[in-house]
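Summary for the lay section of the report: proteins are chains of building blocks that fold into shapes. Here we show the chain for CRISPR-associated exonuclease Cas4 and then a coded description of the shape we predicted for it.
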Amino acid sequence: MEYHEDEYLMISGIQHFKFCRRQWALIHIEQQWDENVHTAVGELMHKKVHDPYLTEKRKDVLITRALPVSSRNMGVSGECDVVEFHKSEDGIKLQGHWGLYNVYPIEYKKGKPKAGEEDILQLVAQALCLEEMFSTSIPEGAIFYGETRRREIVEITDGLRQQVNEIFHEMHQYYERRYTPKVKYSKACNACSLKDICLPKLGKAVSVKDYMHQILNEDEE
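The coded shape description reads as follows.
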């Protein structure tokens, strides 16, 4: 199955969806957003990474920033923070450059490695887009964490590939139905930038719109 461009979802949404399906729906379906210190720091870090004047070449490595990527097979689009092209005898040709290159995606995150897989899945999703665009195979990539100032190598396994495809399929189903799931309150909710919008402790609100409609009706009575 292939998706049309007007059906594409944001690649970055996979980290929200993996962390909390309700958070993803609030952002991408209901268009709700609130910024906390974590998201603000993250935005500043990405602005620096995406500076177009920071493009460079280091010996046999070409470095591209804010590279637009997409996949018809998964129905997603977005940007890769950094993509390195490493000169290699078994790589691909790049227009305007001599030689062959392997593709190496790098995702930038402000904090430190998480217990969950949300960052890893976002990187894998980017790798799958790059594979489709360049007709190549990408065995690994990396995540650079601002707090530890180091790269964490990620192997792009068959299991992760399958998981990413299944998650995007589920995301498309939610989006087509405009479905915002319920949530069970947990400690993770405290750090969520949408905590005050989501109101997880209420537990019964299926969507923000329904909740606000209920409040307005109560005020009119």
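Put simply, here is one thing we learned. The domain at 5-220 is CATH 3.90.320 (Lambda Exonuclease; Chain A).
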